[in-house]
Design a protein that fits this description.
Distance between the termini of chain A: 19 Å
Largest sheet of chain A: none
Distance between the termini of chain B: 100 Å
Radius of gyration of chain A: 16 Å
Order of helices and strands of chain A: HHHH
Number of helices of chain B: 6
Strand content of chain B: 15-25%
Strand order of the largest sheet of chain B: 3-2-7-1-8
Number of strands of chain A: 0
Oligomer: heterodimer
Mean pLDDT of chain A: 88
Shape of chain A: globular
Largest sheet of chain B: 5 strands, antiparallel
Low-confidence stretches of chain A: none
Low-confidence stretches of chain B: none
Chain lengths: 108, 239
């Protein structure tokens, strides 16, 4: 757990000093990618608790989910369908599901 | 505590690395949100919304004041017959009462003349100074009460161009403009149509001018509040 928190703080610090800027037009894409990454982190933690953790699945899931989510929103924008909300709802639901399982593991 | 540390031996490194990436993305997203909030259109919306709410509050307060003042007038006017008559007269002169009488109805409209290419189209449109000249002439001819497109002209009324429309008492209106003046119909008409006068000048540009003498016209009252903010009364000695 400590490593995860330290990693998070390190990431926050790196992001704060990084001069890169994403243009405003892509803000929707990056927010959905953020949510996908959050979901895969929670999913990974749940897999660790259930002893089902596999490195390859976790790392690949992290990047592929983020890319797919951003791609889905991008295509949806151009098709005129609001797939942004679809992605938000799907990832939100998964996050809550994973959180519930993690919580149940700690309380047992 | 061991429950948290033990299972992590398996995947803690990958989890930590991914958390670094996650923290990175979080700060990016945060920065985008800050940029959005600082962007000019967003701020302008906030400023304008604030100003709208404030102006609405001011308007409500002023409307309250109007009804209160009118109540005090109604109260005060029941006291003395002479004072009552003076009050009625003063209210008429202040433009707060609808007035009726013989007069002139002037209708002014934009010119229909086709402008030659290269000519300034503005010359063939009714401007505020055209209307001001007509009203000045009417006043010089003895018009007692004047209204423009339903707006009573009082001492502080402005007549001003606002783009393609005219603003009178802060109310916008579009051509054709109708001026109703109460006075001697013949004198008023003669003042406008005298040789080299206002009508001639306007007709030069093809501005459509129509005069109509009436035996009974109605001029509406002034609807608005104009408390004097800078003018203070000078003590007058009774004659």
């Amino acid at each position: 757990m400590i490593y995860a928190i330290v990693g998070l703080l390190l990431g926050l610090g790196l992001g704060a000093v990084c001069p890169l800027v994403i243009p405003l037009a892509y803000s929707k894409l990056s927010s959905v990618a953020l949510l996908a990454s959050l979901d895969s982190v929670f999913g990974g933690y749940r897999a660790v608790l259930e002893d089902k953790f596999e490195n390859i699945i976790f790392i690949s899931g992290f990047f592929v989910n983020a890319m797919l989510a951003a791609a889905l929103v991008f295509v949806g924008d151009h098709l005129g369908i609001d797939l942004y909300y679809v992605a938000l709802l799907a990832f939100g639901q998964r996050i809550f599901q994973n959180l519930a399982i993690i919580r149940r593991f700690f309380l047992k | 505590m061991t429950k948290i540390i033990e299972p992590l031996k398996k995947g803690h490194l990958s989890l930590a690395l991914v958390c670094v990436a996650l923290g990175f993305m979080i700060t990016f997203q945060f920065r985008i949100a800050m940029d959005q909030r600082a962007s000019l259109p967003y701020q302008r919306i906030e400023v304008l919304t604030e100003r709208l709410v404030q102006t609405e509050k001011e308007r409500d307060a002023l409307a309250d004041q109007v009804s209160r003042l009118e109540a005090t007038i109604a109260q005060a006017s029941t006291q003395d017959a002479v004072a009552q008559q003076t009050l009625a007269e003063l209210r008429q002169r202040a433009g707060l009462v609808a007035m009726r009488g013989a007069g002139l109805v002037v209708t002014i409209d934009d010119s229909n003349v086709a402008t030659k290419p290269g000519e300034n189209q503005n010359l063939y449109v009714v401007h505020d100074d055209d209307i001001l000249r007509v009203i000045n002439e009417l006043r010089a001819a003895g018009a007692e009460v004047i209204s423009l497109n339903g707006q009573r002209l009082i001492s502080t009324s402005e007549i001003r161009c606002a783009g393609p429309t005219l603003s009178v008492n802060n109310v916008r209106s579009a051509p054709p403009y109708e001026i109703i003046a109460i006075g001697d119909p013949k004198t008023l008409e003669a003042a406008l149509t005298m040789r080299g006068g206002v009508a001639d000048t306007l007709l030069l540009w093809g501005i459509k001018l129509q005069l109509r003498r009436e035996d009974a016209v109605l001029v509406p009252p002034y609807k608005g509040v104009t408390p004097y903010r800078f003018a203070k009364a000078v003590e007058e000695s009774q004659p």
